[in-house]
Write a structure and sequence with these properties.
Two copies of one chain form a homodimer. Chain A is built from 13 helices and no strands. Chain A has helices at 7-22, 29-36, 41-47, 50-74, 83-88, 91-95, 97-100, 104-117, 122-145, 151-170, 172-183, 189-205, 209-212. In chain A, helix 1 (7-22) packs across helix 8, helix 4 (50-74) runs parallel beside helix 9 (122-145) and helix 8 packs across helix 10 (151-170). At the A-B interface, helix 8, helix 10, helix 11 and helix 12 of A face helix 7, helix 10, helix 11 and helix 12 of B. Chain A binds a DNA duplex (30 and 30 nucleotides) through residues 1-3, 7, 28-30, 38-46, 49-50. Chains A, B: It comes from Shewanella gelidii. Chains A, B: Keywords: DNA-binding. Chains A, B: This is TetR family transcriptional regulator. Chains A, B: InterPro entries: Homeodomain-like_sf (IPR009057), HTH-type_TetR-like_transc_reg (IPR050109), HTH_TetR (IPR001647), PsrA_TetR_C (IPR041586), Tet_transcr_reg_TetR-rel_C_sf (IPR036271).
Amino acid sequence: MASRSDTKTRILDAAEKLFAERGFSETSLRLITSKAEVNLASVNYHYGSKKELIRAVLARYLDVFMPSAQRAIADMPKNGQTMDDIFGALVQPLLELNKLRADGTTVFLQLLGRGYIESQGHLRWFITTHYGGHLDFFVKAVASCVPHVPQVDIFWRLHFTLGTVVFTMASADALNEIAAADFDEHNDIEAVIRKVIPYIAAGVSVPAPNAILE
Amino acid sequence: MASRSDTKTRILDAAEKLFAERGFSETSLRLITSKAEVNLASVNYHYGSKKELIRAVLARYLDVFMPSAQRAIADMPKNGQTMDDIFGALVQPLLELNKLRADGTTVFLQLLGRGYIESQGHLRWFITTHYGGHLDFFVKAVASCVPHVPQVDIFWRLHFTLGTVVFTMASADALNEIAAADFDEHNDIEAVIRKVIPYIAAGVSVPAPNAILE
DNA sequence: GTTTAATTTAAACGAGTGTTTTAATCAAAC
DNA sequence: GTTTGATTAAAACACTCGTTTAAATTAAAC
């Protein structure tokens, strides 16, 4: 099999890079196959369709990240954890994606952002049905950390948080350029992650107005 | 001029709705003109190109919202304002967009989100150059409210906030359905806005880790 | 009422898309 | 060495896209 390095993974490697920086619909199969130096038809041969290629690209990261993230949460000490600690526990699993592939962390978060914003709902469905167990585990950890916040508010705030992360990562490159130009602050992906944690931790754990005068 | 109601605004009305719910690149001129019941070529006749149509759609909202929002901030009492107050001052200008057009608030926020995420940078440039004055005014109001947060962190956190709002509004319908089914909580757009304010206010004003040990 | 300009229309253009087809090529099994 | 099945290759297919053209129509000016 396989002439040089596997055609199938050459496609995945080229696709994830282009998807992350240009979005899914803005990236043509011809651009992917030319970057990967493979034939155009090989995408449909190996993956069936562009939509399934997109899922394969995301799954390759989620299959690594989701169990790793759940383990990190589960291994936390059971008492006295703050929201900063919970979100902070996700940093290591995220950064370890860099060992998987170059710029793995950035690519993964950008892909996640693109996935949630583009592709009206069908990727959201893919993620929640394939990784729902891991997500539930995370939500329970958050809920037990902020018992003063009603369940329904936790629901809303975690979606606020998803929006924060996803939007930031999708435009991380542009924002980093501005930060470098206007504030002479040169951030890598880890610096941005560490900046966002206090923000989302404070938002999730702030007392809910309705809960106070219950 | 104008056979029935102005063709130019018929295009704008149809375009903003479709752009908001499907994104810019996913919305074809043929879909817009068929919904608007005008001829395909009239878009290029009246607006020159699709790109300029997108800008016109956004400008129609921004020209109303930006001055209105600035006035709301300027009219605030000068002392003792919290971050909740500042963001709260934007609620009225946002909701008044509903008088402009049906679902104006939601459409505007969704368009803003699409604009920042899609169209790599050229719409971000359009907004900052045309409405930079209003944005600066708002940033200064925020900065003077949280003097303990460094400027660069305010920059980042306001973009986090943009992501929170924009992402939430883009999926507000789906989230409201889930909230109604899982928690029996039936929200309209204003209720969601009032839920998000404590979240983003807490995130923006939380002490920055670096600033503490400066 | 004729002229003039603005607008609308239908049709085509040229480029780009994902996908399919058919033949060529390759590696291994017998 | 031949056969077999998997992979690669080049080409075409059937669209869709934004844009342009040129004629038809409409509205306003004189």
